[in-house]
Request: fold
Amino acid sequence: MVSLTRPTVDSLNASVPIAGRAEALAEYERLPVPTSADEAWRYIDHDLDPDRLALAVDPGPAMAADLFVSEFQSPSNAVMVDGHTLWARGSNIESGVRVLGLVEPSLDKFAAAHLAFVTGGVVVEVPAGATPANPVLVDLQTVSDGVIAFPHVTIQLGANSEASVVLVSRSPAGVGAVAVPQVEVDLADSARLRLLLVQNLGLEASNITQLRARLGRDSSLRLGEVGLGAHLGRLDLGVVLEGQGSSADVVGVFFGHREQTLDYRMRLTHVGRKTSSRVLLKGAVEDAAQSIFAGLVRIEKPAIGASAFETNRNLVLSPQAKAQSIPNLEILCDDVMCGHGSSVGPLDEEHLYYLQSRGLRRAPAERLLVRGFFSEVLDRLPVKGLEAALADFFERRFAHEENA
Reply:
């Protein structure tokens, strides 16, 4: 049953009126907490139960800007704290919850909880033909211990428009909380979106991002994700390439340490003719951390001439660390070009030997290989500005654990 510490659906509707809240609540009460026995949560052992957490009636104190937020300071920006919108200012962005219905409440208990209990959101809307000069920054903070937050972000681009959006999710160290952001993306014909997600929650918090995108004719989505923090950091991504000639380029980079779990579930569905998608996810795990990649590219019957490829590369840097890689193709059309590749393993000993033979000691040689491993993805992030800082971050994390 719903926790008594939560507001009622009627009181939530009074402050944030959205359709389908009561139906989502019924779905929430019906659905069990997902476990590793569910295929979509395979390999994940967690103790997250939304009913043991509470909504924040009021937001906690906002955090100071960190490295990643500071890098993208923009005249168009929004800050959400504990699921409440503090402000949304500048052009092309406003406060409000606009639900497009791209994330079905039946997806899982967390998706149903989001629609049932969402308390705030922001809408990024770019009109047809517009090309804003600056990226839009959305800062999603979860700062109060013991809360669950449901920030909602809707991004809609009109025909032949272009925009860059950066979403930073973060929490202070020592705060045990859960964030369940939902991001809905709707691109009209010939729209072009560059979207960067940076997940940097404290290691006591968990983040479950559910992102869905719908692409119109000749539109393009360039999506990047950087996974740094959280005890459980999960990205549940679904992209539907509906329009002919639409394209999606998805890149991701992560580095898990201690007991982190970084979980990536991706489904790209090609419907339109001559659509194309590329997925490249590279990451490293150390200590007792683990990573999961479960990717599915589905080519529907009408998707003649589709092109798709997905790649997942994993470095396993300690005996207790684990990486699971499960790329899949489901092809219902015979006129396509598709493929996938994955690898899981330690640093290449031959490469280490080569560097050591040129005078490097083993530790610097390992750090150089780790830096080179990540550089391919960092260079392809859709919004520029973090490449050097992230390369240094990954190298410091590796060096710290190496010397621990």
Remarks:
- Helices lie at 9-15, 21-30, 67-71, 109-117, 349-357, 362-378, 387-403.
- The chain has a mean pLDDT of 93.
